[in-house]
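Tip: read the tokens left to right.
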């Protein structure tokens, strides 16, 4: 029922955050936080196979986005604070600030500079500290016995990571297929999650019989030494189905927790199989954790995050080398099939989006969106004319012309603390930022972001001083979803 009020409620959280970062500059509606929290609590509390990390990340994203909008920051800063919120929310849920910060930098802010990484890391530390003060210091991944080194662990972790990477691809395929089935089903929206919950309950009967309420707790699964190889494989596969049914049908929650459980189950399966061999060592308790690292790296295509999370969340820093090997193996074996997509980004890819740049905009030209009636300011115009125009039109970046030729652009904030007798031409930035009509819409958006402007002059390619139009960010953002629906 809540999905009828806010569409962001259904499904898992990260694609909603990525879509907001790509399409709306990180702006997220405020009511999403409350409704998402309620929907996730209902889904998870009623036994749904969904995780808590994703909703925590989305609530953090909403908090960061609302704060940035309240402070009236520009689009780049809104995105940055949104990502900071994600980092803090994840760190609080995982109690792993370093890994949470790395996920935000690796998966959400590709190509970020060192300056922007500082607030993300600080937000992650603050989120973990706040969570520890309330819930106490804890590790979300614990096992019975861990040896950080044994001669067999390296080849075993490599073999395990390749197999687990393939399993991660299988999970993503199951997830996408079931999601399409429910989306195409001609049923009322409230009925779909109910049917998904019923199917999930049937699928979960066997894992619940084996593990009880600890089914979706990775630590409990890692310590379930009474389970044999076949049972552990069954638990892993049924967890894939249960999570896909829960979220694919419109339930609300995350995928981090279930992904950890799947990886732990497959790692424990290898450990159980080796336990039957007389020559196998008894100190292979790290395999469930290494399976989790490989599964996270493969399904989320975030190997550095996965490599850091396992030693940080388990309290075994000595596992970092093996965790890195497992993460690399899981990442590469899944990448062969996913080609850079992940459980988080496949939904965006189906909409024509990809992380780093929305590639549908590469196919559109500036001339399709530009306004041909140019509102420009004469070089000798008084400052009052600029102030009046700024009140009438909420834009940044007015072109300044002299004799019909472009001489500059008035950047945002330039009218503050200048004499009223100043001329517009004196405020113009001589470093011209413009686009050509035959350039892509994405190029225009990119240049606006770099210059902090909401509009750019469009000039003639043979004569950059001749303005032929104006392209505005809002027109591009409005046209983009329309193009996706076309």
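Filled-in amino acids:
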């Amino acid at each position: 029922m809540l999905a009828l009020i806010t569409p962001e409620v259904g499904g898992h959280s990260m694609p909603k955050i990525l879509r907001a970062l790509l399409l709306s500059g990180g702006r997220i509606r405020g009511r999403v936080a409350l409704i998402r929290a309620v929907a996730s609590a209902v889904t998870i509390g009623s036994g749904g196979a969904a995780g808590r990390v994703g909703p925590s990340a989305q609530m953090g994203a909403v908090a960061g986005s609302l704060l940035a909008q309240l402070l009236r920051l520009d689009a780049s800063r809104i995105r940055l604070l949104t990502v900071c919120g994600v980092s803090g929310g994840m760190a609080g849920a995982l109690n792993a600030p370093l890994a949470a910060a790395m996920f935000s930098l690796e998966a959400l802010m590709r190509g970020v500079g060192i300056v922007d990484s500082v607030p993300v890391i600080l937000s992650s530390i603050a989120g973990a500290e706040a969570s520890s003060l309330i819930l106490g210091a804890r590790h979300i991944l614990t096992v019975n016995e861990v040896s950080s080194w044994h001669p067999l662990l390296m080849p075993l972790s490599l073999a395990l990571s390749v197999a687990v990477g393939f399993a991660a691809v299988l999970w993503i395929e199951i997830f996408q297929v079931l999601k399409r089935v429910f989306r195409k089903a001609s049923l009322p929206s409230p009925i779909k999650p109910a049917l998904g919950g019923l199917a999930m309950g049937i699928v979960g009967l066997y894992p619940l019989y084996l593990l009880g309420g600890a089914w979706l707790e990775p630590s409990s699964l890692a310590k379930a030494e009474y389970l044999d190889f076949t049972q552990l494989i069954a638990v892993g596969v049924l967890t894939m189905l249960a999570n896909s049914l829960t979220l694919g049908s419109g339930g609300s929650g995350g995928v981090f927790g279930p992904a950890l459980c799947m990886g732990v189950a497959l790692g424990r399966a290898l450990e159980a199989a080796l336990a039957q061999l007389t020559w196998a060592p008894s100190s292979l308790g790290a395999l469930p954790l290494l399976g989790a690292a490989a599964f996270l790296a493969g399904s989320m295509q975030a190997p550095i995050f996965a490599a850091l999370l396992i030693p940080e969340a388990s309290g075994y820093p000595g596992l970092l080398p093996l965790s890195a090997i497992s993460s690399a193996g899981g990442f590469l074996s899944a990448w062969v099939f996913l080609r850079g997509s992940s459980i988080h980004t496949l939904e965006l890819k189906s909409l024509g989006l990809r992380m780093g740049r929305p590639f549908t905009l590469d196919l559109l030209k500036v001339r399709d969106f530009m306004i041909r009636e140019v509102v420009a300011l004469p070089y000798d115009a008084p400052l009052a004319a600029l102030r009046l125009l700024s009140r009438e039109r909420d834009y940044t970046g007015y072109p300044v012309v002299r004799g019909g030729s472009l001489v500059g652009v008035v950047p945002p904030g330039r009218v503050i603390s200048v004499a009223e007798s100043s001329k517009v031409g004196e405020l113009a930035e001589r470093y011209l930022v413009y686009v050509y009509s035959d350039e892509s819409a994405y190029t225009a958006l990119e240049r606006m972001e770099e210059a902090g402007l909401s509009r750019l002059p469009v000039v003639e390619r043979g004569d950059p001083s001749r303005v032929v139009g104006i392209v505005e960010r809002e027109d591009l953002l409005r046209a983009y979803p329309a193009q996706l629906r076309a």
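Strands lie at 11-12, 252-253, 377-378, 398-402, 405-410, 435-436, 455-460, 463-472. DSSP finds 21 helices and eight strands in the chain.
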